[in-house]
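Dear colleagues,

As part of the handover before I leave the project, I'm documenting each prediction I ran so the next person doesn't have to rerun anything. This entry is a single chain, and its sequence is reproduced below.
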Amino acid sequence: MNSTLFKLLLNVYPPYWGTGIVVRKVSPNWKEIIVQMKMRWYNRNYVNTHFGGSLYAMTDPFFMVMLIKMGLPKNLWVNMKLYSDFSTDQSSVTYCFEQNQCMYCMEYSNTKM
């Protein structure tokens, strides 16, 4: 599956669509994924902040998908460290998942199979 189709499928996936989660960017080489969720009446909690379950759903699959798409064995992805940039304002939350190639090479070479 290519990155454009992946982005489209996630944007129409009912749990993401229903909570207002939008995948803004998936780079063709799978090294960067940007996900955003705007504050809406249906994804805020009692104290007017984003619901924790929606925040978790927004971030859960992307590290694993990035690493698997870049050719890592499925049993190795948990040992990888990736850079995640989190930004927020009063009306939205944005995550930028970005993979650092040098870190990937260093961590992969130190991992025993």
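The beta strands are 21-26, 32-38, 83-88, 92-98. Residues 3-109 form a domain with the Thiol Ester Dehydrase; Chain A fold (CATH 3.10.129.10).

All the best with the project,
I.
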